[in-house]
From TrEMBL:
The keyword Membrane applies. Keywords: Cell membrane, Leucine-rich repeat, Membrane, Repeat, Signal. InterPro entries: DNA_repair-toleration, LRR_dom_sf, LRR_N_plant-typ, LRR_R13L4/SHOC2-like. Pfam families: LRR_14 (PF23598), LRRNT_2 (PF08263). Belongs to the RLP family. This is Leucine-rich repeat-containing N-terminal plant-type domain-containing protein. Residues 1-33 form the signal peptide. It is found in: Cell membrane. GO terms for cellular component: plasma membrane. SUPFAM superfamilies: RNI-like.
Amino acid sequence: MRSHHCPNRIMFPLPFLGLALVLLISLVPPTSSCTEQEKSSLLQLLAGFSQDGGLAASWRKDTDCCTWEGITCSPNRTVSDVLLASRGIEGSISQFLGNLTGLLRLNLSCNSLSGGLPLELVSSSSIIVLDVSFNRLTGGLSELPSSTPARPLQVVNVSSNLFTGRFPSTWEVMKSLVALNAKNNSFTGQLPTILCLSAPSFTVLELSFNEFSGNIPPGLGNCSMLKLLSAGYNNLSGTLPDDVFKVTSLEHLSLPNNWLEGALNGIIKLKNLVSLDLGGNELSGNIPESIGELKSLEELHLEQNHMSGELPSALSNCTQLITISLKGNQFRGELTKVNFSNLPNLEKIDLLHNNFIGNIPESLYLCSKLTALRLSGNHLHGQLSEKIGNLKSLSFLSVANLSLTNITRTLQILGSSRSLTNLFIGSNFLHEAIPEDDSIDGFENLQVLSMSDCSLSGTIPGWLSKLTN
Ligand SMILES: *[C@@H]1O[C@H](CO)[C@@H](O)[C@H](O)[C@H]1NC(C)=O
Ligand SMILES: *[C@@H]1O[C@H](CO)[C@@H](O)[C@H](O)[C@H]1NC(C)=O
Ligand SMILES: *[C@@H]1O[C@H](CO)[C@@H](O)[C@H](O)[C@H]1NC(C)=O
Ligand SMILES: *[C@@H]1O[C@H](CO)[C@@H](O)[C@H](O)[C@H]1NC(C)=O
Ligand SMILES: *[C@@H]1O[C@H](CO)[C@@H](O)[C@H](O)[C@H]1NC(C)=O
Ligand SMILES: *[C@@H]1O[C@H](CO)[C@@H](O)[C@H](O)[C@H]1NC(C)=O
Ligand SMILES: *[C@@H]1O[C@H](CO)[C@@H](O)[C@H](O)[C@H]1NC(C)=O
Ligand SMILES: *[C@@H]1O[C@H](CO)[C@@H](O)[C@H](O)[C@H]1NC(C)=O
Ligand SMILES: *[C@@H]1O[C@H](CO)[C@@H](O)[C@H](O)[C@H]1NC(C)=O
Ligand SMILES: *[C@@H]1O[C@H](CO)[C@@H](O)[C@H](O)[C@H]1NC(C)=O
Ligand SMILES: *[C@@H]1O[C@H](CO)[C@@H](O)[C@H](O)[C@H]1NC(C)=O
């Protein structure tokens, strides 16, 4: 998961600030200054803050508001930007900001603002970027009066607040929307896909971590420029509608942890997909052979569904794959069907708890970038090959319960791995004797070693105590 930390504000060292001030003052023609009305709107904003993060020192009545911290003006001296992210501000957002008729960008993200988002900002005839993410704003997003003409908003970020209620149905006047980020609130009702009908330039629709429910409603098919659709961790149900598969511009489709059902077959129309995350749903059916046509696919997450069938050999045509996560399904058949040597970028393979049979495919040992390999919870068998030494980045290996034999040999093979930190080899080597001599060493970075349920005999060996990490 991407990090969602608010950036720290960069403080310039004083000499630099001094220089910048001198430059600024010398550039500003002495006659022009912001209007009294603009100044008073900003002071109304300041008055609404119970904690202003030190702004009052700069926002002085007797100075030109275009020189105030966080404020930028257009050449005609109207305020164009109010950029006050990450300043520790508390209090509310004043509706008087709506009086700044030339305001283009408002960024109040990463503060502790509370109260509602004033209608005046959403319905502004000038604002194109509105970012109030990472605050404690409450209430709903305002419906717009029915007579509202087309609005210029392009980027709206209300993510990580405490907003509730249904998404407004009157936002079709936002004809210029490019990005809407409403992640991590408590929005309810249907996904606002209807926005696609009016805003054809949508490229980012980020709605995850809310309480949206019901089927995915029609509309998405009209978002012909959409690159990212993210609505995971909601309460969506029903099948993936054909409308989704019409959005051939999609690069990232992320709908994990919902109640979506049905099969994946339509997915192959999305030829530009880079990441597909449908984990934690109720999906069934198999991975279609045609998945091989998704030539840009890097991330494939289908874990914790009810999918079945064999892995299609065409999976090895997805040569850009970095992650394959299929754990917790009913996939079956031999893994050797897939030629892993065509997947040189693979870093993570998680097949935990499926019904795969047969041997560990030799071609896996050619995926030299592998960092994590989990095969436990299948009916695989066979032995680890010395070639596992090729996997110089392998840090997590789980091969428990695969009928492995000869614990001495297995530990000798794995001991030379410098990258290995987590090793799970339990439920193998039944009734063998644990090696007690110094033929076992290495494991320089091993932190977790699980050898449970092996019914090993012997005494706890000395080499174990040498694994200092
Ligand atoms: C300024 O904004 C307030 C609150 O939205 C509004 O009542 C007032 O009419 C506006 N003043 C002007 C001069 O536009
Ligand atoms: C000032 O310039 C901005 C941006 O160029 C424009 O949107 C606004 O209408 C202008 N305001 C006035 C009062 O001329
Ligand atoms: C708002 O400011 C923050 C901090 O500088 C930045 O990370 C974010 O991208 C800005 N928002 C927009 C929409 O540009
Ligand atoms: C809010 O979301 C917009 C659009 O996705 C993004 O450009 C902006 O950087 C985000 N703001 C923060 C503080 O992450
Ligand atoms: C959700 O928002 C809260 C409050 O802003 C924040 O602490 C948390 O990290 C966010 N969680 C996600 C998954 O974005
Ligand atoms: C939405 O897409 C359908 C076809 O997928 C098209 O018939 C319709 O005209 C589009 N609507 C708008 C408003 O673009
Ligand atoms: C999610 O949907 C199910 C029915 O599909 C319902 O029983 C449940 O209460 C919903 N949960 C939330 C948090 O809305
Ligand atoms: C996979 O690649 C092979 C050989 O390059 C080709 O014959 C086959 O048709 C491809 N399959 C798919 C589904 O793309
Ligand atoms: C797997 O692919 C590699 C490289 O494309 C090829 O050399 C090898 O013969 C293939 N192996 C099998 C078993 O098809
Ligand atoms: C080991 O795998 C078998 C099936 O192959 C299963 O029946 C058994 O419960 C597994 N044992 C453990 C400890 O997971
Ligand atoms: C186990 O492997 C070692 C080599 O590491 C070999 O010397 C030994 O004979 C093997 N034991 C059995 C029972 O095959």
